[in-house]
Amino acid sequence: MSIVGAVVSLFVVGYGINAGYAVLSSVAILTFVMSFAIGLGPVPFVMIPEVSPFHAVSALSSIGLSLNWVINFFVGLVFLPLRNLLSGGDPQSEGRVFYVFGLTLAVTATALLRAYKK
């Protein structure tokens, strides 16, 4: 349900930005944060202590958090150029980048669910 909420909210953010509905976009961003916080967000911090030896939990948690920060940094570097490329300079099309993020999350989640369902 967390992934579904995050994907839907990303598409709604994109629609809200393209249509000029600031309140809808704001509510969708809050919905994304809530969906992420109750599902995908804490997964590394819950899973690492369960699957690793006690003496490695701190180091693995640090690696997981560092990896998260590095990936977020590079996504941040790509965000504005990708938004500008997809919008073609039209301010009414700046929400298209959220469609790409939503589609990426949906495809990745589907692939992972299929891989781990076996």
TrEMBL record:
<dbReference type="InterPro" id="IPR005828">
    <property type="entry name" value="MFS_sugar_transport-like"/>
</dbReference>
<keyword id="KW-0812">Transmembrane</keyword>
<dbReference type="Pfam" id="PF00083">
    <property type="entry name" value="Sugar_tr"/>
</dbReference>
<protein>
    <recommendedName>
        <fullName>Major facilitator superfamily (MFS) profile domain-containing protein</fullName>
    </recommendedName>
</protein>
<keyword id="KW-0472">Membrane</keyword>
<keyword id="KW-0813">Transport</keyword>
<keyword id="KW-1133">Transmembrane helix</keyword>
<feature type="transmembrane region" description="Helical">
    <location>
        <begin position="97"/>
        <end position="116"/>
    </location>
</feature>
<dbReference type="InterPro" id="IPR045263">
    <property type="entry name" value="GLUT"/>
</dbReference>
<feature type="transmembrane region" description="Helical">
    <location>
        <begin position="60"/>
        <end position="82"/>
    </location>
</feature>
<dbReference type="InterPro" id="IPR036259">
    <property type="entry name" value="MFS_trans_sf"/>
</dbReference>
<feature type="transmembrane region" description="Helical">
    <location>
        <begin position="29"/>
        <end position="48"/>
    </location>
</feature>
